[in-house]
Design brief:
Layout: H1 3-24, H2 27-40, H3 48-67, H4 72-95, H5 113-132, H6 140-158, H7 160-166
Length: about 170
Amino acid sequence: MSYVETACRCVLGIVFAVSALSKVRGRAAWSRFTASVAALAPAPRTATRPLAAAVVAAEGAIVLALAAGPVAPVGFAMAIGLLAAFTAAIVRAYRRERRVPCACFGSGRPVGPRHVVRNGILAAVGLAGLVTAGGGPIRPAGAGIALAAGLLCGLLLITFDDVADLFE
């Protein structure tokens, strides 16, 4: 495992864990999330709840795969794929001028270009982790720094909407 892989696992792990938990933390959060799935996904209404459950399950599976060393590359690949699907849905809604609230972290802001940028950054993190996976042994001090950097970057990406608001 390399230091870059360690940081990338931390970034994506925290982002997908918080994302999944924010969607299932209560009845109201789940209702907001299923409503956003219905508005974003080109699927029949009867598929909304199963699709929403599949998204949360996929996010949880990514977190577990990233936490388990040997299957971390699978977690990176799953993250990249899920982010691509999210981005396609966001772009589709934005092009159709639909103001669909983002239910990723509970912000509720309408999806748009900033969410595409955030997903692009996360996909790049996933790609960096995938490319660097399986490196040699790492030292505890370096691992601590990589984890701290990953945690900080993950928290910045979770609060990306708020950070972007500061610069508008």
